[in-house]
Specification:
This protein is α/β, with parallel strands linked by helices. Helices cover 38% and strands 19% of the residues. The protein has 10 helices and 8 strands. α4 crosses α5. The radius of gyration is 22 Å and the shape is globular. The structure holds zinc ion. Zinc ion binds next to loops.
Length: 318
């Protein structure tokens, strides 16, 4: 029997609400199955979408070739040994907290013996967030600039970073945000603008080719881009409707490109406060989370379900 729990009408799901809804492993698995049934299961052997549910095994069975699929298989939990409830707690924390939290903090809170699986879980969730946002195309008027984030380079690859090792580097990030000028008086901070969707993308270099390619992939052809005057942007006019580069004096940046700079400084503060030493290859993950939450800041309690659906429908590519 599938359990349906009515969510309370609060702006964000609070901790008591979460515990009430997901008191144990069973309730998490049932919710996961409910969402998996909704999004559909595809057989990895024959592509059939019709399945029986083998209740005793907690597995789907393909109606045409009898291939079994576990509840986790092909989802973000593919290959994970962690309890469903750990994942649910992580999703709850990621979607209900304004800032973020480190893998170390979550490990402590869960009382789990090992750091690495917790760290991997959080990074997978951040990857899901990034993939969801990559489906969105920015449009309208867009502020664009680069941000330089301090990261730490180390020799050991693909291992969580131990603190205090490695050399600093500046990672380059292309930042784009929809920003519509509003009617109203120009203030000290410039013309008021309404902010929309945000994207932050780690790039290897600032070559015109790299930036043009990124903009082409993430921005609507009908968009108009505001930026400073840089040789990196010379070809932007080829991929959008209009590009309006302006020579911006250093002290006028927050006036001319207000939202893009606010986003950069907020993201930097978050990295400093919560995550400390970030390795270049994991920076995108943290930015994914920052943008995902920023772009859904009015979703309230719906955010938990949204991220859970994204996790369930995620095809296994890890
Ligand atoms: Zn099949």
């Amino acid at each position: 029997m599938i359990m349906f729990v009515v969510q309370r009408n609060t702006t964000t799901m609070n901790l008591l609400n979460f515990i009430e809804q997901f008191p144990d492993e069973e309730s998490c698995k049932l919710k996961y199955k409910e969402f998996r049934d909704k999004t559909g299961v595809t057989c990895s052997v024959c592509g059939c979408k019709e399945h029986y549910w083998k209740k005793d095994k907690w597995q789907y069975e393909c109606k045409s070739c009898a291939k079994r699929t576990t509840l986790r298989s092909g989802t973000v939990m593919h290959g994970s040994q962690l309890p469903f409830r750990y994942w649910f707690i992580a999703i709850h924390l990621l979607t209900s907290t304004k800032k973020s939290f480190s893998a170390l903090e979550l490990q402590r809170q869960l009382g789990h013996s090992y750091y690495e699986p917790i760290w991997v879980m959080l990074h997978k969730l951040r990857e899901v967030m990034g993939r969801r946002d990559s489906e969105y195309e920015l449009s309208g008027i867009i502020e664009l600039d680069e941000g330089f984030f301090t990261t730490i380079k180390t020799e050991e690859k693909d291992k969580p970073l131990k603190r205090g090792r490695g050399s600093q580097k500046k990672s380059k990030v292309l930042v784009m945000v929809e920003s519509v000028p509003l009617e109203g008086k120009t203030t000290k901070k410039g013309k008021p603008r309404k902010v929309g969707h945000l994207k932050m993308l780690v790039i290897n270099d600032l070559k015109a080719k790299t930036i043009t390619h990124m903009v082409n992939d993430n921005v609507s052809k009908s968009a108009v881009i505001d930026s400073d005057h840089s040789t990196s942007y010379v070809n932007l006019k080829d991929v959008v409707k209009d590009h309006k580069p302006v020579v911006i004096p250093k002290d006028k940046v927050s006036e001319m490109l207000p939202w893009v700079h606010l986003a950069i400084s907020n993201a930097k503060r978050l990295l400093l406060d919560v995550h400390h030493d970030v390795r270049p290859q994991y920076l995108q993950g943290y930015l994914n989370e920052f943008c995902y939450k920023y772009n859904r800041r009015y979703f309230g309690e719906k955010l938990f379900d949204r991220l859970l659906i994204a996790c369930v429908s995620y095809k296994n590519e890890f």
